[in-house]
């Protein structure tokens, strides 16, 4: 099954998954509508089993009548994004968290990256904090414990390649998204969706950029408004490792998992859910291996 609608009818589809976001999702949609009223864009909200009525505002004002609203019973972050993409008609897909604000004309500036750099397949803006707007990250990388680390501003604010794109806002060619199969549909609840698709894109021969000339503001929270356990996060981490890493690097990843008493059970579930079959399919398609990726971006893991 295709992960996107291949009948492109507009420039871009802005896809916003949400779950129990309270007033944040309205803030996000209002900001996007104010900044991009063009008919070239559509907005798709995937309400992934919210219990707080966070999307009821869509029915209360005609200003939201063109916003597509998809209800799901709780697919998890990766599959909710894929579902939104399957109903999209844009040549580009822009995935946004439901707790951001955007500057004027941001989608045009972001998508201009693909014109300035035809080799680009995905791009993110700079990401600042709603609480501290002056602070910003410019794409991400991994440290030696496979933790995501924000990158500093590129020299002269130039558009540049980065290893990882943050899920808070990333744009990707719809055709590219289809070719790599979208976000990992085997992921559960939340965790590693953005870094896994970033890694997969690079290994499959695509190129990722950050455009520092546009900055969105993101609400960074201490806890999720829904239940996320270490088991969920560790499951996704190990699924990513078994799908993309060599066995030495898988061993190092296993050592990172907290609660060693749960490790065997989580690993068994990852393997039972087809991680090795996915690994074989990915290895057969990819152009580069994980050693190449780590060396290219000077990641010591």
From TrEMBL:
Ranges for domain Glycosyltransferase 2-like: 13-179
Record bears the keyword Zinc-finger: no
EC number annotated for this UniProt entry: 2.4.-.-
Gene Ontology molecular functions: glycosyltransferase activity
Highest taxon of the lineage: Bacteria
Pathway, per record: Cell wall biogenesis; cell wall polysaccharide biosynthesis
Keyword Chaperone: no
Residues of the signal peptide: none
Alphabetized InterPro entries for the sequence: Glyco_trans_2-like (IPR001173), Nucleotide-diphossugar_trans (IPR029044)
Alphabetized UniProt keyword annotations: Glycosyltransferase, Transferase
SUPFAM superfamilies: Nucleotide-diphospho-sugar transferases
Family, per entry: Belongs to the glycosyltransferase 2 family.
Protein name in the entry: Glycosyltransferase
Species of the source: Pelotomaculum isophthalicicum JI
């Amino acid at each position: 099954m295709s992960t996107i609608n291949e009948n492109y009818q507009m420039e871009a589809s802005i896809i916003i998954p949400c779950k129990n976001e309270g007033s944040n999702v309205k803030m996000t949609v209002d900001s996007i509508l104010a900044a991009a009223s063009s008919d070239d864009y559509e907005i798709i909200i995937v309400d992934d089993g919210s219990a707080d009525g966070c999307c009821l505002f869509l029915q209360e004002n005609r200003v939201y009548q063109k916003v597509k609203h998809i209800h799901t019973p709780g697919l998890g972050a990766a599959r909710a994004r894929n579902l939104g993409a399957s109903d999209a008609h844009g040549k580009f897909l822009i995935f946004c968290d439901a707790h951001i604000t955007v500057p004027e004309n941001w989608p045009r500036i972001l998508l201009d990256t693909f014109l300035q750099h035809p080799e680009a397949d995905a791009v993110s803006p700079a990401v600042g904090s709603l609480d501290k707007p002056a602070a910003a990250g410019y794409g991400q990388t991994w440290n030696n414990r496979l933790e995501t680390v924000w990158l500093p501003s590129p020299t002269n604010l130039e558009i540049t390649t980065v290893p990882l794109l943050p899920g808070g806002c990333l744009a990707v060619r719809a055709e590219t998204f289809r070719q790599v199969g979208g976000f990992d549909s085997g992921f559960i609840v939340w965790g590693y969706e953005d870094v896994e698709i970033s890694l997969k894109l690079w290994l499959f021969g695509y190129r990722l950029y950050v455009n520092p000339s546009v900055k969105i503001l993101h609400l960074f929270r201490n806890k999720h408004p829904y239940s996320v356990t270490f088991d969920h996060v560790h499951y996704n981490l190990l699924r990513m490792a078994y799908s993309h890493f060599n066995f030495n690097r898988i061993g190092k990843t296993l050592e990172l998992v907290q609660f060693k008493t749960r490790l065997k059970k989580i690993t068994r579930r990852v393997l039972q859910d087809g991680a090795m079959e996915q690994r074989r399919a990915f290895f057969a398609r990819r152009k580069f291996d994980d050693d190449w990726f780590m060396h290219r971006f000077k990641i010591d893991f």
